[in-house]
Amino acid sequence: MTRIISGAAGSLRLEVPKSGTRPTSDRVREAIFSTLTSWDLIEGVRVLDLYAGSGALGLEAASRGAATVTLVEKHPQAAEIAKRNTRTVLGAFSRASTAAPRIDVVRQSVQTFLASEGERSVTPTWDVVMIDPPYDHSETEISDVLSALAPLLAEGAAVLVERSTRTPEPTWPSGIQPIREKRYGETALWWAEPAL
Length: 196
Prior knowledge:
Protein name: 16S rRNA (Guanine(966)-N(2))-methyltransferase RsmD
Distance between the termini: 41 Å
Keywords: Methyltransferase, Transferase
Strand order of the largest sheet: 5-4-3-6-7-9-8
Shape: globular
Pfam families: Cons_hypoth95
Organism: Leucobacter alluvii
Helix content: 25-40%
Low-confidence stretches: none
């Protein structure tokens, strides 16, 4: 079972696709959001969740106070589940008569999405970016995604890459510098920020 851990939609259950995704465990999600809270990167931020799957990471950010969340997922079944989960989370804000964040689900490949963002964005867009690709994605693909993402990061942004502990550290492009690595069982979290 996957659920929202905290915030306006705390304890709500989320659907997960039957196959093709690997939901982040509650323990790892709690570690991710503890880090973001300590960096004051939750309340009012713009969040991009790449390879979103069920949307659990981005929707957790929405529940905890992010201003906008964009979930990017190319697989039709997973994108549909992310849309249903989005409605569930927004319903919690409605029931509490609380201002809801803007949440968009984009059914597109990550590369296509970042290319279109790069073409139309004149100012850096994202405060927090979470990248949790399927473990079988190549290191080259992750490196290409990070390179496309670098010019879209706001000042002081945080980038999270979640991978298997059996994969090497991502190859960071010139515009992004690593700042921290944490391991939780089979999961490795790499944190980075825009390079100065």
